[in-house]
């Protein structure tokens, strides 16, 4: 029997909250009816979906009618980008995104470029924040377009100045989409304060199950559905709704609102700081990557000089510490992180980095034990 596992990869996925599992179970058994059915049992299931819609809307400051349920964050991103591509058209239009976007945005944008759209990627500073001057210069008021910038980065947790980015884009009459998959449920994200037109989120990043996400579409924004059929989700995403998972997403949204109000996220941030302090005091050549001021409270991205993540990760796994070098989607690709390269780091620096991400289930005892195990492994690898 091996060591007790310490999970520090919550940016990859989170443990499903027991309250969410409990809330979902009736919709696998007694309440299994089709929510589009006209009889009472169907109407009850429909009501459960609408309650979940209200819960998700409340979490981000939206109106319930502005929330569309999807299968995942990637679907939300692709749906918006393809919809906006149809809206602005190929000719005399432009798309701007940042150099640190997740592949769920970069790949659809690359596909647009391949068929003739003008695409410009703007850089970031060494702290991982978008270069506002470069972004402003890329926005062209002389042609229709849209910008897509993530609210918080999946590797470093660095938070982007979304209010200022929106101001620059809106002055040119452009639409703004944000991939907020690593922000929602971890920091306050309010679409009633930041005027994005579209926002993507994913349930499994804040304790709902995998396989459910949502898309915020501001009222009055143009939208072309990617999935057509029976007209579910007010015609914006057809297909019989995944009721248990939608219910789970709604409860997850409610739980994260409780955590914000009750100081739970501040507790997670204090544990993150405890982890960083413990490692930096016990080891030399440890560098925190990205802004220390503008970042989500649950993640630290650290480089360990003299080590390679390809050696650290299996050694840490062997002693029960579960973490990653960056995006789970890019694991095993054998290339330096495009996020760190965009921040100006060398290949050696990028290859020596680990992402350690916490959740509301992480304990102080786990953090202290993780420090001990990580210190031991880093010293052994360096030796």
Can you describe this structure?
By secondary structure, the chain is of the alpha/beta class. The protein folds into 2 domains: 6-16 and 263-382, Aspartate Aminotransferase, domain 1 (Alpha-Beta Complex), CATH 3.90.1150.10; 18-259, 3-Layer(aba) Sandwich (Aspartate Aminotransferase, domain 2), CATH 3.40.640.10. The protein has helices spanning 18-24, 40-60, 73-88, 103-114, 132-138, 162-171, 243-262, 264-282, 309-318, 338-342, 347-351, 364-382, and strands spanning 6-7, 67-70, 94-98, 118-122, 145-148, 175-179, 198-202, 213-217, 286-288, 299-304, 321-322, 353-357. The strands form 3 sheets. The protein has a 7-stranded mixed beta sheet with strand order 2-8-7-6-5-3-4, sandwiched between helices. A 3-stranded antiparallel beta sheet has the order 9-10-12. Strand 5, helix 6 and strand 6 form a beta-alpha-beta unit. Helix 1 (18-24) runs antiparallel to helix 7 and helix 9 (309-318) packs across helix 12. The chain is globular and about 65 Å long.
């Amino acid at each position: 029997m091996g060591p007790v596992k310490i999970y520090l990869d919550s940016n990859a996925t989170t443990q499903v909250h027991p309250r969410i599992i409990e809330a979902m179970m009736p919709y696998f058994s007694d309440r299994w009816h089709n929510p589009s059915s006209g009889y009472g049992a169907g109407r009850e299931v429909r009501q459960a979906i609408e309650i979940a819609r209200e819960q998700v809307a409340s979490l981000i400051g939206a109106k319930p009618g502005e929330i569309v349920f999807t299968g995942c964050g990637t679907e939300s991103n692709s749906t918006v980008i393809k919809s906006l591509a149809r809206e602005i058209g190929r000719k005399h239009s432009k798309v701007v995104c940042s150099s640190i976007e997740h592949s769920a945005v970069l790949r659809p944008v690359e596909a647009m470029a391949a068929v003739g759209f003008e695409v410009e990627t703007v850089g970031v500073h060494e702290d991982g924040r978008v270069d506002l001057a470069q972004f402003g210069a890329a926005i062209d008021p002389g042609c229709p377009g849209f910008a897509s910038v993530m609210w918080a980065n999946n590797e470093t947790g660095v938070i982007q100045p979304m209010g200022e980015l929106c101001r620059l884009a809106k002055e040119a009459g452009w639409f703004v989409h944000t991939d907020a998959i690593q922000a929602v449920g971890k920091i306050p994200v309010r679409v009633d304060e930041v005027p994005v037109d579209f926002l993507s989120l994913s349930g499994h990043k804040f304790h709902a199950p995998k396989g459910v996400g949502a898309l915020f579409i501001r009222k009055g924004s143009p939208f072309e559905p990617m999935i057509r059929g029976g007209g579910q989700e007010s015609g914006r995403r057809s297909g019989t709704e995944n009721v248990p998972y939608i219910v789970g997403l709604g409860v997850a949204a409610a739980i994260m609102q409780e955590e914000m109000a009750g100081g739970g996220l501040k507790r997670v941030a204090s544990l993150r700081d405890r982890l960083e302090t413990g490692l930096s005091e016990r080891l030399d050549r440890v560098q925190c990557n990205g802004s220390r001021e503008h970042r989500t409270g649950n993640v630290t991205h650290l480089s360990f000089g003299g080590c390679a993540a390809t050696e650290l990760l299996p050694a840490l796994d062997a002693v029960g510490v579960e973490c990653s070098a960056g995006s789970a989607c890019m694991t095993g690709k054998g290339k330096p992180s495009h996020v760190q390269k965009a921040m100006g780091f060398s290949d050696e620096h990028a290859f020596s980095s680990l992402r350690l991400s916490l959740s509301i289930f992480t304990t102080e005892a786990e953090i202290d034990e993780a420090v001990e195990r990580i210190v031991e492994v880093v010293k052994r690898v360096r030796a």
